[in-house]
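Suppose a colleague, Dr. K., hands you the sequence of a protein chain of 231 amino acids and asks what its three-dimensional shape might be. Before reaching for any lab equipment, you can write down a predicted structure in token form. Begin with the sequence itself:
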Amino acid sequence: MEWSEEKSLCLVGNYKLHRNLWDSRHFDYFKKDVKTRTWNKIGLAVGASPADCKRKIMSLLATYRKEKNKIRTSKKEGSDEVYTTRWFAYNALQFLKLRNKPWDNRASLVVDNETPEVVSEPPPVRQPQQVRPATSVSDNKQLVTEDLAPEREFQTTAKRFRKDTEQSEFDIFGQSVASQLKSLPLKEALELQLELQQIITEKRLILLQQNCFANSMDSMILHSECKMSPE
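The predicted structure, expressed as tokens, is then:
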């Protein structure tokens, strides 16, 4: 199959979107069935068979490693002229550096042969200090209250955020079940989902019947007490 530069870059872009194919720390990296479905998606997006897409990516990755080695070698030799690659897909594959970087540093990716721009900030300008006029005790209390207002608002917002983000054991269990269902073939996953839903529905019906029975008994007792009470 013929691969133009434009089509190859399109393939690289789709490959970049699916981290489970190139990042060994992704939770789907070692799941062959998930990878197979991912390659099928890429094939549909690019307009090629999954096997052709996979072979082309392997070829591009091999060339990318060769170009990186050339740059690394030229730097070690102490030459005044560092090797500059002109290969069309080199910059497009720079996201692969994320595999070897800590998670917190993934936003700061510098491409080889490019010098990051350093932006210097102007020194802070000192504002003339204003002298507050003398205030009474009541004014001081008001000032303290006003100064603490932003802090109290922040604490209230933080508590509300923690409450919203806290997960119960049922939330964690639901996420675990969802993750396990995703790892199953679609047919088995749907069948298991149906069984779980049936169990939950049956339990809810039992509780509903019990509540209806309890309410009925309460009504009967109340009705009998009304009859027994003297007029």
